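Re: your question from the hallway

Yes, I did run it. Sequences:
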Amino acid sequence: MKNKGWLNYGLLLLIILFAAFLYFYKINQLPIGLSDDEAAVGYNAYSILLTGKDEFGKFFPVAFRFFGAYTPPLYVYLTVPAIKIFGVSAAAVRIPSGAASLLGIVIVYLFVEKFGLVKSRLVGLAGAFTFAIIPWVFYYARVGYEVTSGYIIFSLGMFFLWGGLSQKKVSLVGLFVLSVSSYIAHTERYLVPILLFLIIVFFRKQIIVKKNTKKIVIGLMVLFVTQVPNLFLLTTKSFWVKNSLMNPNIDQMINDFVSQWLTYFSPKELFGISSDINLQHTSPELPLIYSWLIIPFLIGLYRLYLLKNTLIGKFLIIWLVVSPIPGALSGHFISIQRVMPLIVPIVLVISLGFESIRSRVGWRFFVSGFILLSAFSLLLLWRSYFVLFPKERWPYWSYGYEQLAGIIKDRPSDRFVVDSTRARTVYVNLLFYLKYPPSAYQRLMPPELSANYYSVPDIDHTHRFANLELRPVTWISDVFVDQILVGDALAISSQQVGEHFLVKVFEINDPNGIPILFGYKTNPLKKKADNRTKESLKVRGIGPRKD
Amino acid sequence: MLGLLFLQYRGTKPTNYSQLTEIEKIAQLRRMNEYPPAFYRLANLIEARPEAIMYFKLEKNFLKNFDLLSLFTSYTHPIFFPFFVIGFFGAVKYNPKPVLFLTSLPIALLTIIGHENPLGPFSLYPIIYGGALWGMFEVLSKFPVSHEK
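Structure:
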């Protein structure tokens, strides 16, 4: 029996190692490019590491302003040691997400195995492996911002909470971890209070008993103390920035809520191609969960229905039903990032389904079928993520700015104007790739920005640092200054190139070999001479013939 | 049920498994070119083999049967959803084989012929309304009934 236990842990370790390979293989290059959100995390972590302040000069913020979202701060602080160890790189920003996802595998295994959700340890391993390879987990394990750590730490809190509830106790660790998760991502900030309220309502007979009095009091104190920063934020505008996503019309809000909640639960959404319109959130032709898993999911739902009057059944149903609420309240559009706390309960339901299938078909048939289907799934994962994704989704990952930063670094004596008409947030990618000293950048910020940090002050969208400026090109003046104008084909047309005597000095291609960014050197002497000629022709009354 | 299945079959424009539309052909060609040259056989297997094309189309049709948003907003009302969940599982528990058999018939048909029908997947309606009705009875049966003396 003891040997079997070690075998299970050995297999779990193998699953973790395999998942680590999946999550960290080519992590610096894939996703191709670095999204603005990742660059903001990376540069702010770098800034905290060197100065203890964020890019705007705020000392250890309790919410990071970024582009106005006031993101809960913990992921940035978790990234600080990664930046210290791995340097300013895409890998350093993404590794904490991957590491959190590895922890997620252990959480799923322990949930399934330790708490008697299923009888077979084999099913615990199958559940952990399923969690490790499903595209929703895999994709976000390789993304360097807060959503992944948010749902994993939240699930860890749920694990401890259930550990307590299953013994009719209050888990102080569970409350602490859940409270901490509200500092990682917006979703958990809203989800934790809703969920704790419902847990108290539905488990009041287990929680509110005399022997728990001391723990309830300590638990409330833990929650209060750990929520002090959030309570402070509650009094500022910054806490409410995401409220703008909610529809002010109550009828419309209810309609949006119902339709979004149904969509998030829809097997078509979960096991088919997601309707999330933000193509940065998904990989081509890849569902959130492999389609064949719909069978164990539906069987698992039925098992859950049969367990509805048990404590674990109630606990899982609440977790499943409540998890999409913050996402469903946030506007018209589906965003799979906002409902990630759904992942673990869904995998637990799938594990329930596995248990039923295994007991029906026998473990030999179950294992061989599972291995075969998992291999097929991994083939689809490879096709989507390693073949199609870099070629089709590069526009959503600020691709090209790493190369641009390299060119800017190589030409320190040149002055650059980077057109930011369609890329208002890429300044942070250039700050990141240029490793621009955070203290120098903070000095460029107006001091009132740091003083009124949480009051959501307006900021200027032009950026000037190092030897570059990010703003729309001003044709009336920029062509008379000796500099390099950088932009895409819409920002600088071939007609403008001819008219202003611009000379192409570089171009940056997308992964398919098509140019996406162009650098043109201005020719102020020729332009001024041309202007003088035109002026003199105008004075002498000679102009283009008007037929 | 058989009548409904027949009507569903007659009114639906069946999915074409053997031919791709022009847009699908362009996407297929583009995707084939995205594979590294060493994997051209695999590219052909996944993107161009008739069996693979058929598999992806069947998968899409199958999953469309579970589009809760359209089933419970476009064709029925969201209020039916919780009752349906309770009722359907209750019915499965009560009498599993006939319920699962009857449910699998329209799902199998719609998976094969597709969902291009102006009236929607109406062969699923008896399952949805039946499940919801069963669910309502289950919920109502939980409330105590007072009898006049």
